[in-house]
Specification:
The chain is α+β, with helices and mostly antiparallel strands and about 190 residues long. Helices cover about 30% and strands about 20% of the residues. The strands form two sheets. A seven-stranded mixed beta sheet has the order 1-2-7-6-3-5-4. A two-stranded antiparallel sheet has the order 8-9. The radius of gyration is 24 Å and the shape is elongated.
């Protein structure tokens, strides 16, 4: 019996692909979030190097990161980055949907963390909402809103599928499909 191992682990993919980010434009409006990050996996050791590299030019050198361990199976204490060390801390009091990045010289940035398994359309909505300058919406509020929006979209799709499976026909008050060209029956059954 032979065993085949998948050599393309999430760690390998994260190093090769750039970070998926949406950052708030530079403005004087201060909001609760500075943008959003959509990692490809829940492996912080693999996901943080591309994120720090992507933020090097617009924000400077990131030295520390804090997360809530509720969303990450393993939280390493340090992550190696191009010959230097990125320190990682965790706090259960921190919003589980937020990542805090710190730099000794530049300051602090808060990013919404979009779960890796999120559908692309939902991730796009979340990334756009998190990058609105001056927004007063917290990470948890954005995620809760997206769950409601996603549920509404799924319900609308289900209703549309039901409509299409019935032939797209309206039902008469008597429970029979009406043709699209026929006017509806009046209350007494006459047209």
């Amino acid at each position: 019996m032979t065993t085949t191992l998948d050599r393309t682990a999430p760690r390998d993919l994260a190093v090769e692909l750039p970070a998926r980010l949406s950052l708030t434009p530079k403005t004087t409006l201060a909001g609760l979030l500075d943008g959003a990050w959509w990692p490809r996996s829940r492996d912080l050791a693999a996901e943080l190097p591309p994120l720090a590299a992507a933020l090097q030019e617009p924000w400077g050198r990131v030295t520390r990161v804090t997360v809530n361990p509720a969303r990450w199976p393993v939280v390493p204490h340090t992550v190696a980055l191009d010959g230097r060390t990125l320190h990682v801390g965790w706090f259960t009091e921190q919003d589980p949907d937020k990542l805090i990045l710190l730099s000794f010289t530049v300051g602090r940035w808060d990013l919404l963390v979009i779960p890796p398994e999120t559908e692309p359309a939902a991730a796009a909505r979340l990334m756009a909402a998190a990058a609105i300058p001056g927004s007063a919406l917290a990470a948890g509020v954005l995620m809760a809103d997206e769950r409601v929006i996603g549920r509404g979209i799924r319900d609308a799709r289900r209703r549309e599928a039901t409509w299409e499976s019935e032939g797209g026909a309206c039902m008469s008050p008597f429970g029979e499909p009406m043709g699209r060209s026929a006017p509806p029956l009046s209350g007494n059954g006459w047209r």
